[in-house]
Amino acid sequence: MCGIVGYIGDKEALPILIDGLKRLEYRGYDSAGVAILGDDLHVVKTAGRIKDLEEKLKGTKLIGHLGIAHTRWATHGIPNDINAHPHYSESKNIVVIHNGIIENYLELKKMLMKEGKTFRTETDTEVIAYLIEEFYEGDLLKAVQKTVSMLEGSYALAILSKEEKDHFVAVRKDSPLIGGIGKGENFVASDIPAVLPYTKDVIIFENGDIVDVFKNKMVIYDKNLNVIERPIHKIDWDISDAQKGGFKHFMLKEILEEPDVIVEALRGRIKNGEIEIPELDFDKNYFKNINQVYFVACGTAYHAGLVGKYLVEKYLNIPAQAEVASEFRYRNPVIDERTLVFVVSQSGETADTLAALRLAKEKKAKTIGIVNVVGSSVAREVDKVVYIHAGPEIAVASTKAYVAQVEVITLSILHLAKIIDKLNEANEKLFVEEFQKLEGFAREILENKEEIASFVSTTKNIEETFFIGRNLDYALSLEGALKLKEIAYVHAEGYPAGELKHGPLALITPNSLVIAIDTFTPLSDKTISNIKEVKARGGKVLAIAKKDNTRIKEVADSVFYIPNVLDDLTPIITVIPLQLFAYYMADARGLDIDKPRNLAKSVTVE
Fold this sequence. Notes:
By secondary structure, this protein is an alpha/beta fold. 35% of the residues lie in helices and 24% in strands. The mean pLDDT is 92.
């Protein structure tokens, strides 16, 4: 997820673009850059945050009334000056900024290299600039139209041509892009906050829109260059609220982004009806020798690894363990070259996780990183890395990153099962069909979020909560309890439901709240029996269950139903009501949800 801004008008473009980038910095912050078209075309870019770009701009004279700017969250190529946007065409007559992922960029790059083109960067975006120049015959709009017809994936683009100083072109497909309508000036941006200081009149572009932006008009075309109309919306948000998309907290905004995150994590990983993780190009013979798998991580990432443990044993038929990295690193784990270690970290900089990775490598284990931040320490040091593409997460409590981690871990395990001939064609087809339903399922859950808020209103003074579940639902119970502890400051514990009678039942009273997760169909009857045990002690029960679970409402006080998802994919969407429960509980208590006390987003010390 990146932030893009474009401006044309009577004012100097540079300060407006920098101001816009600052308002979009929550979308990405590993590098930034600007292109200004005045008497000539000038590009300045750098690794680091926007303040680093401002420092680099000191002493330069970028004069012009037309420009584009970008703040980056890397997806292809490590964060450095060269890979920062904007990107030039080969002749440097055209520059492009891009938010999204071009799935077929390698094929396009190979095609251009056969024609003798040489590339400067590791990014997918540079290919777009080269293609536009390939098609350019004095008409930027037509060159862009021809180029985007060849692109597969997601993109929001803004493009300048050195030869055309009275306009720029923007395009949207599956990545957000809006237009701001001013007086004698016009804007495009990834999100509304970038333009709010200058105009309240906004167009929300739709997929396939190609936009020709002049200072006094904005012409919108479809893919065939037929002129189309889009409505202008009057935005009445406060500027500070706008960065959160009008939501009260970043955490809620990030939970509501999860359907899109599900799509992005899946993008390019299902091709022609088959699961394919090109990053995991291990030799088949290597996997025949693997005799154990570890998942090492901390906090929420550890809970994602627990899901992986269950799935590895089921689909790879190899013993698996999930272990907290701070424990793994300080004992003497029995691992060797026949061990595969998944290293899971949102930031890729978690100190204990990094130390566990280095220990695994010392012992000759193969390592796979499941990481969000491109070019992070974990990403650089593992043998193979699979990015989750969740975009920046601002709230300290991880939400959308967990969803993407579980999805990517699941995809990776199924891909490895294919390599060693343990996933048959029928099962693969079933998984592909079910993966493609997840976005809609997540949206359905979020549409019913007020049910969770309503339940919280009756329990907001509770001081102790137990989360129970079996199998994959147990992994979810740990994550649900962690979220409640992190942001609502409620003492919460996650337990295997079958462990209730081995201790926790002694704590159940009429003042106890138990959240029972019952989405793993083979063990539903047993979980219902455990709920009855809680009710017999007077405890209050909120159950989370699939729609086809008709018995649960007879034993629980309240039930939040989720769609009938495939059992092995339930964690990806079942976590959403757990996150919402913690969020609404913290909000009801008036707490600082995005920055809970004593916690930090990335734990880079022991």
